[in-house]
Amino acid sequence: MNHDDILFGILGNAFHCPVLGEFEFLENVLITINTDGEIDSLLKPDEYAVSDIMEVLERENRLVRLKEKQYLIPGLIDLHCHAPQWPQMGKGLDLPLYNWLANYTFPLEAKYQDLEFAKRVYDDLVQSTLSSGTTSAVYFSSIHLEPTRVLADTCLEKGQRAFVGKVCMDDVEQCPDYYRQSVEKSLYETEAFHQYVSTMSGNHGLISSVVTPRFIPSCTEGLLKELGQFATNNNCYVQTHCSESDWAREYSQQKYGETDISVYEKTGLLGRKTILAHSIFLTEQDVIKIQDYGASIAHCPLSNMYFANAAMETRELLNRGLHCGLGSDVAASVTPSMLRSCFDAVTHSRVREEGTSTKLAAGERGEAKTRISFLEAFWMATTGGGKALDKNIGVFRRGFSFDAVLVDANIQDCDLKIWQALDSASDILEKIISTTNRQNIIKVWVQGREVVCKQ
Ligand code: GUN
Ligand code: FE
């Protein structure tokens, strides 16, 4: 056979988590990728031994052979990231949300009308997220049309799968004069951006537009309704913040007498392609609605610990089978690394756990069985994110896009150390999740294209 439809093959060890809470170690697997950037086959040693495929790929220089202590994992999926806040990372996180937004975020986001500044920041951000293994990112941009196009162009040029939204905010009381738009302008620019993305040359589905009302306090009901109608008519992705702090939650109650979810439902913003960041304070009715609509939650563990002063009921939401992935919520985090988000999600779930002292009465401190495992967190950052976005990504499976990260545990001066005599496959995956630094990520592919190559 000539295998002409195979772009290249990778031979080595790979991990993925197709099922929540479980992992598969694909030992010495040969993954072949077709010219559309999809996985064409996953062959076990006894399968490729009886085929000529290895010989052909090797002869034609189309085979990547992984070394010892190099591992392939699925590309990581960040369901919630604020692109213009990249220069803000590491500032003011000890403030409450309201002050953080007013003192740092809005003044910074307002600067993006300067397209040169936008290009400089977005080049650096997209390079950094890719180098951290983020192959798909769901981005809030700023309120401006042109810089949002720059962000989409940058993702396309660098090869990152991206879901990009121009932020909409119009409320006169909640948004500063220098950083808000009228309903008409917000809607016009949302439509213009949607149109731009659908006609971007060379896009081929890598970039999607997202209708993006910032959150309930920053939007009037009129704006929410217009955006809801646009999203429904055009079957668009929607992203927003949902019940993320006491202040934001109480604002909805005071203004509408309802929860965020009810407001999003009534304004047509809740649907299968809606991504709700945070969603910390949900009522039982809210959870039922999210599940009925098939909407998704972007769990942002570190940001929640800082801004919600509360813990997400991740365990319960996963048990109920809601679509749930992870978000970095840059700049409400101190790294774009989704592996760090996995680690934070586990930490977040552990602080909820019931105290075990015999001096405590049942339920006196914490709750029973709230922990999530590293495998569950990793599932959220890969398989769960793929389900949330309704895309064939996050798992190594025939027909799925080849979005992958090559982790190298041979790098000097790094925390990821594998001791082969001591570490089982499950230990190795846990160590990858917990201790991988950016230096350990030596190659990244999106849709079969090599987008990071350090060796
Ligand atoms: N709520 C409204 N806007 C924002 C934002 O930019 N970041 C976070 N974390 N929460 C928000
Ligand atoms: Fe956010």
Characterization of this structure:
The protein has 455 residues and is an alpha/beta fold. The protein folds into 2 domains: 129 residues, Urease, subunit C, domain 1 (Roll), CATH 2.30.40; 312 residues, TIM Barrel (Alpha-Beta Barrel). Helix content is 37%, strand content 22%. The protein contains 15 helices and 17 strands. Strands 6, 7, 8, 9, 10, 11, 12, 13 and 14 form a 9-stranded parallel beta sheet that branches. The protein is globular, with a radius of gyration of 22 Å. 52% of the residues are buried. The mean pLDDT is 96. The structure holds guanine (GUN) and fe (iii) ion. Fe (iii) ion binds next to strand 6. The site of fe (iii) ion has 5 residues, from strand 6. InterPro entries: Amidohydro-rel, Guanine_deaminase, Metal-dep_hydrolase_composite, Metal_Hydrolase, Metallo-dep_hydrolases. It catalyses: guanine + H2O + H(+) = xanthine + NH4(+). One of its GO terms (cellular component) is cytosol.
What hetero molecules are in the model?
guanine, fe (iii) ion
SS elements, strand count: 17
Number of domains: 2
User: In DSSP terms, counting alpha (H) and pi (I) runs of 4 or more, how many helices?
Assistant: 15
Approximately how much beta-strand content do the residues carry? 15-25%
Low-confidence stretches: none
Q: Could you please say which CATH topology of the largest domain applies here?
A: TIM Barrel
- CA distance, first residue to last residue: 31 Å
> Helix amount, in percent?
25-40%
CATH class of the largest domain: Alpha Beta
| Average pLDDT figure | 96
For the biggest sheet, the summary is: 9 strands, parallel
- Per CATH, the superfamily of the largest domain is Metal-dependent hydrolases
Structural class: alpha/beta
Outline type: globular
| CATH level-two architecture of the largest domain | Alpha-Beta Barrel
Q: What is the radius of gyration?
A: 22 Å
